[in-house]
Design brief:
heterodimer; A: about 450 residues; alpha+beta; 11 helices; 10 strands; B: alpha/beta; five-stranded parallel β-sheet
């Protein structure tokens, strides 16, 4: 008997008991579907979280402050900054030159006066009773400037819109506190996209009475971000903040009127280590250079532990599901062997060998495994897509960035189908061997 | 518990550490236009004196309105005006820093303080010409020069004339009668017209509209001297019209 004969015989057996076949296939589909879904979710968690962390991505950025290190606990996640210490180009070069430093991006910060829209003649006329006219009052804020070409390696999460163009002096992104200031719904950040805001930089003049002059610019809001680059409402290019800063520093110190000159060129530096394992070493090196650092290294380790636990739990659930599916296959085939003793006996009586009978039952199990695997994998991937859509909807509703689950993971799909087939063969091994070893005389004699 | 919450935040942060772009399409941000540099030179009305509310001063001064209406988003404005300054003092306090900024647009609006200081029209003309000539930088900048409004209808002037306590001038300071004041203003405005013609600047004829502005109490600030938000809007409209006409001529 050839493989082809074995397959035809198996197909006829499968079709003869459609209900049992359907239940067996469903059991396999359930197991493989669950495993594929859990594997895909775990894969996403690994690639998007551990992967990012492991590469020393934005979530693991080390923030260097313009201050001396905390003498008590310099390596805690959020140390107390020591005495102010200027961060200048020499310090930046020293940090960049330290071993295991992948990148070091300087951060500028500038105090600005914010005049929210409306601007120009679209301001409602003042009738002499309410100077505010229901408008949002101008307020003081801080603009944070960085090299926007390097934003991918900075702790910046885009919530809506886009990051301002690199080098632009007419575009900014805002934090959610800007929406708060404008009494807008933070769950609808897109409401501010494309709007303009006027930013003024004060300069104190040294002429007798302290006099303040301002430099004014209008900028378009291109995005809403959550950022840990620096304490500021606006994220802009270093060129924009640098120009504003030059204007202020060409005046004199205005501490008396709450406008002190900045004591450091850079308000901070965001350092990315070459790998997750290097964060501690890099922090120690920067501490040696005399600057305070903060990094979520303890938090990262905790997250890694949690993710490993999640992997173990998900894997265990999947294995239980697969074991149940395997038992289902074995049970169905054992029942089939019992039912088909006479057929086995007749086949053997007319010359079939043990391996022909083995092939018959294994082919039948293979059919259940492949069919169940295909169905289960499709259902599992569908479940992942649906879960992703629900999670993304929730994240966006909460004002957070969504998760990109990517396309259909081909490897996961192949493993899902192939694994189900292999599992079915393994589960069928004992019933098939039992059938194959059944003596013809005994099989026929049962009747 | 705190660690769990922190882990969740970090996980979300890692998930959301997105590259530029993908959640919502980028907003429709129009062309930012030319990177004009605008300097506002002047005295108290350009600073916003009289607008006692901080929000009004930041939003409603005529220079601010002019900047937001007339110039593209890529423009930068420097308000260098100093309250109470005369054209002589402004050459050091305002023109010198203005020249370091290389302006492409400038507004020059000095009137009342020279008048109050008793500066003769000939000196005013000389000083104004120095300012306009310097700021124009050989034609690199469009320079708008505002002339003086007639002030005989202003509540503050009338208070000083009648010796009322509402008069903002120092005690014992006597003001000339309306005819004399108007004659001085006319002499100043003739000086402004000559300077504008000689230097190729643009005249903003505030005097021609002063009656409309000064006769409406809604245009005057509570101090009776400076413009209210409505008055600033009227001034801004005059400067805007003159600027747009000048740009068209170019």
């Amino acid at each position: 008997m050839s493989w082809r004969d074995g397959l035809l015989l198996a197909l006829r057996s499968v079709l003869r008991r459609p209900a049992r076949t359907a239940l067996t296939v469903l059991a396999v589909a359930l197991g493989s579907g669950l495993l594929v879904a859990l594997a895909a979710i775990a894969q996403v968690a690994d690639t998007r979280v551990i992967g990012e962390l492991g590469k020393g991505g934005p979530a693991t950025a080390i923030k260097v402050a313009a201050a001396a290190p905390d003498p008590i606990a310099p390596d805690s996640d959020t140390p107390r900054a020591g005495a102010p210490r200027a961060l200048d180009d020499a310090a930046l070069r020293a940090i960049r030159g330290a071993p295991s430093v992948q990148s070091a991006t300087p951060v500028l910060a500038q105090q600005v006066i914010v005049v929210p829209p409306p601007l120009g003649r679209s301001i409602p006329a003042f009738d002499g009773t309410d100077p505010d006219r229901g408008l949002v009052q101008p307020f003081n804020a801080v603009a944070v400037g960085v090299d926007l070409n390097a934003v991918g390696s900075l702790p910046v999460t885009l919530l809506a819109g886009r990051i301002p163009a690199a080098g632009s002096v007419t575009e900014v992104a805002v934090g959610l506190d800007y929406l708060d200031r404008l009494h807008l719904d933070v769950k609808r950040p897109e409401a501010v996209l494309g709007s303009e805001v006027e930013l003024g930089t004060p300069q104190v003049q040294a002429t007798g009475d302290i006099r303040v002059r301002a430099r004014w610019t209008r900028v378009a809001i291109t995005g809403v971000v959550a950022q840990q680059v620096g304490e500021g409402t606006f994220l802009a290019s270093s060129q924009f903040v640098g120009a504003a800063r030059s204007w202020q520093t060409s005046g004199v110190d205005g501490t008396a009127v709450g406008l002190p000159l900045p004591s450091t060129k850079y308000s901070g530096v965001i350092v990315v280590a070459s790998s997750l394992d290097d964060i501690h070493t890099v922090r120690a090196e920067i501490t040696t250079l005399g600057y305070s650092t903060s990094a979520p290294e303890h938090l990262v380790a905790t997250v890694q532990r949690y993710l490993h636990v999640v992997d173990i739990v998900l894997g265990s659930i999947g294995l239980i599901a697969l074991t149940i599916a395997a038992l289902g296959i074995a049970n169905a085939l054992l029942a089939a062997v019992r039912e088909r003793r006479r057929e086995i006996g007749v086949l053997k009586a007319i010359g079939a060998r043990d391996r022909d009978v083995l092939r018959w039952f294994l082919a039948e199990a293979l059919f259940s495994g492949v069919a169940g695997g295909v169905l289960g994998t499709a259902a599992g991937l569908g479940a992942v897509a649906a879960t992703g859509a629900v999670v993304n909807g929730y994240l966006v509703q909460q004002g957070l960035a969504g998760i990109d689950l990517g396309g259909i993971p081909l490897l996961t799909a192949l493993i899902g189908v192939g694994g189900s087939a292999l599992l079915a063969l393994l589960a069928a091994a004992w019933p098939a061997l039992r059938a194959a070893r059944l003596p013809a005389r005994e099989a026929v004699g049962v009747l | 518990m705190a660690a769990t919450a922190g882990a969740a935040v970090l996980l979300l942060a890692a998930c959301g550490a997105s590259s530029p772009g993908s959640l919502h399409p980028g907003p429709a941000v129009g062309d930012a236009g030319r990177a004009e540099v605008y300097v506002a030179l002047g005295a108290s009305e350009t600073v916003g004196t009289g607008l006692n509310d901080e929000a009004l001063r930041l939003r409603d001064t005529w220079a601010q309105l002019f900047f937001n209406e007339a110039l593209p988003r890529a423009a930068t404005m420097y308000n260098l005006a100093v309250p109470g300054i005369t054209t002589a003092a402004a050459q050091q306090s305002e023109v010198a820093p203005a020249l370091t900024l290389h302006p492409t647009v400038a507004t020059v609006f000095f009137t009342i303080d020279d008048l109050v200081a008793g500066v003769p029209a000939t000196d005013y003309e000389t000083n104004l010409e120095v300012i306009v000539h310097a700021v124009r930088q050989g034609g690199r900048a469009i320079v708008l020069v505002g002339n003086a409004p007639h002030i005989d209808q202003l509540p503050a002037y009338r208070a000083c004339l009648s010796g009322s306590a509402f008069c903002p001038l120092a005690k014992g300071f006597s003001v000339p009668g309306p005819a004399a004041v108007n004659a001085m203003v006319d002499a100043y405005n003739a000086a402004v017209a000559r300077v504008v013609a000689r230097e190729g600047a643009v005249l903003v004829d505030v005097a021609a509209h002063a009656a409309d502005i000064a006769n409406d109490p809604a245009n005057i600030a509570p101090d009776g001297l400076h413009p209210s938000p409505r008055g600033h809007a009227a001034l801004a409209a005059l400067f805007l019209g003159a600027y747009q006409a000048a740009v068209q001529r170019r």
